[in-house]
Amino acid sequence: MPNFYLNSQAQANGDHEVHKENCTFLPLIKNRILLGDFNFCSDAITVAKQKYQISKLTGCYFCAKGCHSR
């Protein structure tokens, strides 16, 4: 199971992205929050919503496309 990370810095539209550990677009270390290891990006997003009270979350288009909301 891959580790997933939350980008603590919101994008211009207010979304926070969730990335897999091997993503080319993984945020800088100072902007990463480890969510844990999951089989599915949707599980990582659920944990991020509950733990960090962030409502605008999306999966990275490149590494978590199944959860990308565009």
UniProtKB/TrEMBL annotation:
Source domain of life: Bacteria
UniProt name for this protein: Uncharacterized protein
Lineage: Bacteria, Pseudomonadati, Bacteroidota, Sphingobacteriia, Sphingobacteriales
